[in-house]
């Protein structure tokens, strides 16, 4: 294990390299924000948090160097894709046909999420897990989930997956169709439903995953609209912090309820308990590589654990609780552990190179107006953002979410095409204000879209009436 001074120097050197690479990528991409930028931003933030909160943990030189090598392998694949696919020269333009989703999609997704939450709670009650008041039973439910005493039913997983799919469509409304009020209302209901899942099990990832999925959907929706949004924008950062602050408080509150088995205690104790989750993932990866990994490759059974379970293939669960120092433990070993577990370090670097290339390829497909491509762009954004914690597709609900999104997008495209062929125009629930557009057009002397030319009305001629004196 490295001493504290050596660890600080290695972290500082790695952080400088990541910042320099991120600046280079930003100049290379110009106004674009591909999953490559998300990947580098996620790892840079993790290294900074580890320097602040994780200095008391254990690290190895082999773990830190191999991690940096694999991070750069993904980045090199993305850079090659940016250069070869001509992302910089791609002309930004909005799609010819917008994805006009029916208004009933989000309510169905919310109802499915509520059904899954209530089914989850009733399942705990039937199993005799949760007893007592709501908070005490929620803490007991979390213990039953992590110990394997209770397994989520498939219908509950599908209900949560529909919540994630609903987040995609709600964000798409105000990012593409400018229905900000309707989309924001649906998104707020979806997040509240995810919070119900979190309160049922005191599992913070249920709310965090919906928020992550909504953020990645917003980035993908801005790309398909021809106006990519970068997370390096000052307004975006300030709004993100405004949303993140209450979310962090909510997660600390839920963690305190779990620690006190139904009561609310000191939030500082909850933060100390969450410290390995915030700044200990690099240490957990180093300890796993040094003490647990035995060079036994699983050849995809870790990365594809969720789809294999959906197909009925049993795989070995590898969620070791690792002692990372300071008397604390962690099982969050970053996505890189999954890659090494399946393919090794050098073959894993090739896999990450291909993943980086494909992520930028999905970005270009979305720029061309592919809505199915935007679904996969959401996936690549989410992989890059969550990679500093763990492999995002360890659980089947996220696979179901991707399947539901692809199916709903294809259904909406088919129905829109069917209506267009028959001349049935889709009327949005909240049409744009034509009066404001007409006034702006008169002031700028530029005709607005949808304006109708004024029809000259001929004056009626009345017969002359002579008045005799």
Write the layout of secondary structure elements.
Layout (H helix, E strand, L loop, with lengths): L3 H26 L5 H19 L7 H25 L19 H22 L7 H14 L6 H23 L3 H22 L3 H20 L9 H26 L7 H13 L1 H12 L12 H6 L11 E4 L2 E3 L3 H10 L1 H23 L3 H16 L9 H26 L12 H11 L25
Antiparallel strand pairs: 1-2
Helix pairs in contact: 1-2, 1-3, 2-3, 2-10, 2-15, 3-11, 3-14, 4-6, 4-7, 6-7, 6-8, 6-16, 7-8, 8-15, 9-10, 10-11, 13-14, 14-15, 15-16
Supply the key terms.
single chain; 469 residues; mainly alpha; 17 helices
Walk me through the structure.
The chain has a two-stranded antiparallel sheet. Helix content is about 65%, strand content about 0%. The chain has about 475 residues and is mostly helical. The chain has one domain. α3 (about 60-85) crosses α11 (about 280-290), α8 (about 205-225) crosses α15 (about 370-385) and α10 crosses α11. Residues about 425-440 and about 445-460 have low confidence and may be disordered.
SS field, number of helical segments: 17
Structural class: mainly alpha
DSSP helix fraction: 55-70%
Overall pLDDT: 78
Q: In what range is the share of β-strand residues? A: under 5%
Task: Please sum up the structure shown.
The protein has 469 residues and is mostly helical. It has one domain (4-421). It is built from 17 helices and 2 strands.
